[in-house]
Amino acid sequence: MFGFRKNTPEAPGNVEYIIAGLGNPGNKYDGTRHNAGFIVLDALADKLGVRISKLKFKSLCCTATLGGHKVLLLKPSTFMNLSGQAVTEAMAFFKVPPENTIIVFDDISLDPGKLRIRRKGSDGGHNGMKNIIYLSASDTFPRIKVGVGAKPHPDYNLADWVLSRFTEDEVPLIKEAAENACQALELMVQGKTDVAMNRFN
Asked: Which residues does the annotation mark as catalytic?
């Protein structure tokens, strides 16, 4: 079993990992497909007994201890297309390399609730990842892609689709995906990305 320990408000030591969940800020975007990264981060914060509420790095953030490592949980407030501004600012401040900066974001090529964990790779057409890779000049970010489902019809507007909310049937799938992603993140910060990939991909 995974040992999620409730944290003190400020975890001791230096930040070793950044976990950034991508999404759009504001109530109107809560629970939308594009905010799958935020959904995972909120689930993780809940498990760890912390609140992602500190305003810094163009984000809401907090520190916590996960798998024995101090991590920064980061939800950019920049809107999706400018996610790299927040992520690279935090990376520079804590001197955390891309390899220790895990990005969690939505993927329309995966069925709702499915996960795909990768050590690195291209942006895959995702605007948040595109901006992070562009501003950091690196694509070696470990990432967890959370399936949000494909457009219901090829002519369906992509922006309308990713900004739509999950259906009643999809909500439990996304909750389960968030649970699995939390366990995967704990493995990843412990250097067990292969285990996470084998278990959850």
From this structure: 34
What residue ranges define each of the domains in the chain, with the CATH number in brackets? 17-200 (3.40.50.1470)
Bigger pLDDT: 113 vs 5: 113
- Please check whether residue 107 is in contact with residue 145, taking contact to mean a CB–CB distance below 8 angstroms: yes
SS3 sequence, the chain?
CCCCCCCCCCCCCCCCEEEEECCCCCHHHCCEHHHHHHHHHHHHHHHHCCCCCEEECCEEEEEEEECCEEEEEEEECCCHHHHHHHHHHHHHHHCCCHHHEEEEEEECCCCCCCEEEECCCCCCCCHHHHHHHHHHCCCCCCEEEEECCCCCCCCCCHHHHHCCECCCCCHHHHHHHHHHHHHHHHHHHCCCHHHHHHHHC
- pLDDT (tens digit, 9 = 90+) per residue, 51-81? 999 999 999 999 999 988 999 999 999 988 9
Q: Which tokens go with 110?
A: 């995966």
Kindly give the pairing relationship between strand 69-76 and strand 101-107.
unpaired
